[in-house]
Amino acid sequence: MVNLLLAKGANINAFDKKDRRALHWAAYMGHLDVVALLINHDAEVTCKDKKGYTPLHAAASNGQINVVKHLLNLGVEIDEINVYGNTALHLACYNGQDAVVNELTDYGANVNQPNNSGFTPLHFAAASTHGALCLELLVNNGADVNIQSKDGKSPLHMTAVHGRFTRSQTLIQNGGEIDCVDKDGNTPLHVAARYGHELLINTLITSGADTAKCGIHSMFPLHLAALNAHSDCCRKLLSSGFEIDTPDKFGRTCLHAAAAGGNVECIKLLQSSGADFHKKDKCGRTPLHYAAANCHFHCIETLVTTGANVNETDDWGRTALHYAAASDMDRNKTTLGNAHENSEELEKAREMKEKEAALCLEFLLQNDANPSIRDKEGYNSIHYAAAYGHRQCLELLLERTNSGFDESDSGATKSPLHLAAYNGHHQALEVLLQSLVDLDIRDEKGRTALDLAAFKGHTECVEALINQGASIFVKDNVTKRTPLHASVINGHTLCLRLLLEISDNPEVVDVKDAKGQTPLMLAVAYGHIDAVSLLLEKEANVDAVDIMGCTALHRGIVTGHEECVQMLLEQEVSILCKDSRGRTPLHYAAARGHATWLSELLQIALSEEDCSFKDNQGYTPLHWACYNGNENCIEVLLEQKCFRKFIGNPFTPLHCAIINDHENCASLLLGAIDSSIVNCRDDKGRTPLHAAAFADHVECLQLLLRHNAQVNAADNSGKTALMMAAENGQAGAVDILVNSAQADLTVKDKDLNTPLHLACSKGHEKCALLILDKIHDESLINAKNNALQTPLHVAARNGLKVVVEELLAKGACVLAVDENGIGISSSCLFLRSHTPALACAPNKDVADCLALILATMMPFSPSSTMTAVNFICFKKDNLSRTTLSNLGSMVSLCSNNVGSEDGYNENDSDSETF
C-alpha cells in the first residue's frame, strides 16, 4: 500500500495537524519495513512535530527496539531533544522501555542529560511505574545518582514521591545521598512521610536518614506524616527515637500538625507516646485551636476528653470557640473545588462543613466553653460566626448568651450585625435581626449595618435590614453619607432601588453628604449609568449644587462619562450654572477637551438671554481650551462670533496657548482673529512674546515673530521679551531674539538694567555670551544701572569667568565704581566704592577688607606719601561726588606707579592683584 501511494505521487513529508509525518507513525508502531521504505524515498529522518519529537523519540517511547537500532545505524542524533528538553533516553525511561534504554546507552546516549526542568533519565526511571530495570541500567552505565533538578530533587526524592522503595535501595547502595535537600529543604524522608510510604521510610531510616532535619516550613518528617494523616508513618518515625515534642520554627509540635490534619488515630498515637497537648506554638495556640479551626470534631473530642482547656486563649485572646465559629467555609470550598466542579455539589459540601462547624461548636459549649470571652480587639465568638456567616453557629451561641449585643464596654469597633452585613451573610444577618432591638447601631465611623451592606452591594442583606425597619437616613460620622450614597458609590443599582422604594419621603433622593453631594452627583461622577437612570426616574434634582457650587453636570463633564452627561442634558439641566469659582460646565468641557459636548452646550447657552462666559477671574472657555491645548474645542468656540474677540482676563487666550507651548492653538487664534492680538498685553503689560520668551518656547516665539510681534515692546517694568528670556536663562529664546529678530540690546528697564545686566545677574552665562557676541559698542559694555554697576560688576559677582574674560576683551572698565561711595575709619582710607574686582567679594565687609589690603599693597613713593596722608584727612561728611572723582584719579595715579619698573621689581604681583 505504501509503495502504491508513493507510486501515485503521495507527498512523503506530508504532516498532520500536529506536524507528525508518516515516518513518525511508522516508527511509533514499529513497522521497520515501512520506515526503511520511507527513508529510501528521501523521507526526512530528523523531522520534528510541533513538540519537537523526532522518529527516534517516537520509536523509543513505544519500545520499538528494531526501529531504534535502524535509526541509530543511519546516524541520527541520539541526544536530540524535544521542546521539553527530553531525549529519546528520557522517554524510554519514563515508559519503562528497558531494552531501548540498553540499546541507547550502548550507543553512547548521555545518561546525565537534563531536560528543561533539570530532570535526567535517572529521575524518570526512579519515578516511573515500570522503570526499575531502566534505573539499574542507567546506574550501571555511570548515571549520577545525586544529580539534582532545578527544584533540587534528586533521583532518591523521586522514589520517595512514588514509593519506589526497591529503587531507593539501589540508589543508596550506589552512593545516593540520603539527606539531600530540595529547594524547600525537604529530604527524601520528608517526601516519603508527606506521601505516606511506610516501607520507604523504613529503608531510609535503616540507611541512616536524619529524622530531626527541618524541611518545608521548618517541619520535621513526623510533622508531615501527622499533618497528612499517615499514622503508620508516624509510628515508624517515633520508633526511631525522635523527640515527640520537638517544635518547628513556629513552635508547632507534631500534635499541632495531627490536630490540623484531622486524623484521630494520629492524635491518639502521639498522646499515648507522651505528646503534650498543652504545648503552644509561637502564637500561643494549642492543638485544640488547630482542630477547632479546621472543624475536626473527633480530634476536638479526643483532645477535650484528655484534658485540653477549652477556654485557653492564644496571643490574640482567641479561644477554640472563636476558631470554631470562624471556620472559613470559602477556603474549604476552594479546597473541595478540585474534586467537585459542579456548583450544587460545592454548595452541598459547604453545608456539610458548616454542620461540622456547628457540631464542633456545640461540643465545645457542652464542655463549658465560654462564648462571652472576647479577644484583644473586643470580639467574641458571636462576632466571628457573624463575620464568616455561620448561621447554625450563631443560633447555638445566641441560645447560650445575649452578651454579644452588649457593645458598650466590649472595645469592638463593629457589632456582629456590621460584620454579617459587610460580608454579605444574609442568613446569619436574619438570625441576628431576630435578637436585636437597635438596627441602627453604629461602628467606629458612625456607619450602620445598612450602610455597609449597601456599599458592598449585598442586596439580600439590604432587603432584610430595611424590612426590619433599619433607617435609610442615618449619616456616618466622617463623610455624612447615607446608605443611598453608599450604594451609589459602587453602582449597586438594586440596593439603591430597594432604598428608594422603602421611603415615602420624596426628598430622600436628594439627600446630601458633608460635601453637599447628592446620590445623583456621585452616580454621575463614578459613571454608573443605571444608577443615574434610576435617580432621574425618581425625579432627582439635576440642578442641585454641592458646597463648591458644582452640579451633577459639572462632575459628568470633568469625569468624561458620556452617557451620564447625555441623560442630564435630556433633563434640561442648567448649562450656565456657575460653581463657587464662577466656572460653568462650558469651562470644564473646554478645559477637558470635550469638543462634542462643548458644541452642544454652546448651542443651548447661546439661546439664553443672559449668557456670561467669564468665571470669577475673568477667564472664558476659550482661555481654558487654549491653556490646555484642546484644538478641537478652540475650533468649536471660534465658530461663534462672541469668541472671535478677546474678552475677560487680559491674560488672553493667546497668552494661555503660548505659555504652555501650544503652537497649533496659537496659530488657530492668529488665523481666526485680527492680527493685532499678537501684541495684546496683560495687566502687567506683557505681550504673548514675553510669555514665549519667559518659557523658552522657541516655535511659539517664531510663530509670533512671523505675525509681526513687536520684538522691543516693554512691559510695565520696562522689560522686553529679550530681557525676560535673558533674566530666566532661556538661551533658545535669546538666540532667536538676538540673531533672527535683532532685538534692541540698548533697551533698559526701570532699574536701568540692560539685557546683559539681567543675564549676568542670574548667572546665565550662555545667554550673556549670546548677547555679548552682538555688542560692539564700548558704552554699552560699560553701561551702568541704578546701582552704578556695569555688566562687569554683575558678572564678576556671580563668578561668570568666561563672561568676564569676554567683557575685558571688549574693553570693559575695570575701575568703574558702584554707588557705595567712600568711607573713612580711624583716619585711614578704605575703598567702599566697589570696582569690578571688589564685586567678587561675597559681601560688603569682605569687599572693604579687600580694599584695605589692596591699598596697603600699593607702593606709594616718598614724594607722594604726604599727598596721600593729606587726602585721607578729609572728613566723611565733606565727601562728595567730586571727591569720589578725585579718588578715581588717585587710584589711577597709583596704578601707573605700580606699573613702573621699580615697583615691579619690588612687588611683582601687585599689578595683577589690583
TrEMBL record:
GO cellular component: nucleus
Domain of life of the native organism: Eukaryota
GO molecular function: transcription cis-regulatory region binding
Protein's UniProt keywords contain Phosphoprotein: no
Intervals holding ANK repeats: 18-50, 51-83, 84-116, 117-150, 151-183, 184-210, 217-249, 250-282, 283-315, 377-400, 412-444, 445-477, 479-511, 515-547, 548-580, 581-602, 617-639, 684-716, 787-819
Gene Ontology BP term (one): positive regulation of transcription by RNA polymerase II
Signal peptide coordinates: none
Keyword tRNA-binding listed: no
Cross-referenced PROSITE patterns: ANK_REP_REGION, ANK_REPEAT
Keywords for the protein's UniProt record, in alphabetical order: ANK repeat, Repeat
SMART domains found in the cross-reference section: ANK
Alphabetized PANTHER family for the sequence: ANKYRIN REPEAT PROTEIN, PROTEIN FEM-1 HOMOLOG CG6966-LIKE PROTEIN
Full protein name: Serine/threonine-protein phosphatase 6 regulatory ankyrin repeat subunit B isoform X2
Source organism (scientific name): Hipposideros armiger (Great Himalayan leaf-nosed bat)
Annotated gene: ANKRD44
